[in-house]
Design goal:
Chain lengths: 77, 147
């Protein structure tokens, strides 16, 4: 478990690239740990997860982020 | 192709909705990565889940996400009960106990404190439901799921 707010560094990296990535990779997944970005974009969450585990391992955590122009808010009933 | 059928009485005012038994655990890739470095893998946790067409994504209670030690891979926001709530995003696998439905493996599971119902700890959302054909026969009080 990673505490809330743990991904602030990764989120900053994502925000730096959001516009660029949302033009070419909308809906795809990217994997970030600290300021490091895993190679490539992934069409599924499962593929991104595997790439994150391979690149960064399981111990230090990493962000798996789907590329959207704006953050969606998911409706729960 | 998996198939599961069960009784659900929609006329019972105290009934929370169609519930199924699930087990929640980390995804196989995460378990393998833990094993490789000698960490103990948590056992799957069994809980009741509500089949919820009103939930766009699958959610479990934050307490259960912690108990299952699900690997957190992000955060997002959900809208429920007229307000927005921050929730965790975790990699996990959900299996459908006592059925031959295919497990939902390596999916994103949100964790949120909004689930305080006594009857269930998980909402099966449309991210899973979109892979199923669900039929509700109201007269015979039967729910049938085919994947």
């Amino acid at each position: 478990m990673v505490p809330k707010g743990q991904f602030s560094a990764e989120q900053s990296v994502f925000e730096e690239h959001r516009n660029e990535w949302s033009r070419a990779h909308l809906g795809e997944f990217v994997v970030i740990q600290g300021d490091k970005i895993a190679d490539g974009f992934f069409s599924t969450y499962a593929d991104a997860l595997r790439a994150g585990l391979k690149r960064f391992g399981v111990q230090n955590g990493f962000l798996v982020k789907q590329v959207w122009v704006a953050e969606p808010v998911y409706c729960i009933s | 192709m998996g198939h599961f059928s069960f009784t659900w009485d929609p006329s019972d005012p105290s009934d929370p909705g169609p519930l199924i038994d699930v087990e929640v655990m980390n995804s196989p890739d995460v378990l393998e990565a833990w094993s490789a470095i000698g960490l103990e893998c948590p056992q799957p946790v069994k809980m009741k889940a509500l089949i919820d067409t009103g939930a766009s994504v699958t959610v479990i209670s934050k307490a259960y996400a912690k108990h299952c030690k699900l690997l957190q891979t992000g955060e997002s926001e959900v809208r429920a009960l007229g307000a927005q709530h921050k929730c965790g995003e975790h990699a996990g696998t959900i299996t459908f106990v006592g059925t031959d439905l295919c497990p939902a493996e390596a999916i994103r599971i949100r964790s949120c404190d909004i689930i305080r119902e006594p009857y269930f700890a998980c909402l099966i959302g449309r991210d899973i439901l979109r892979n199923w054909k669900i039929t509700f026969d109201g007269r015979n009080k039967r729910v049938t799921i085919v994947d």
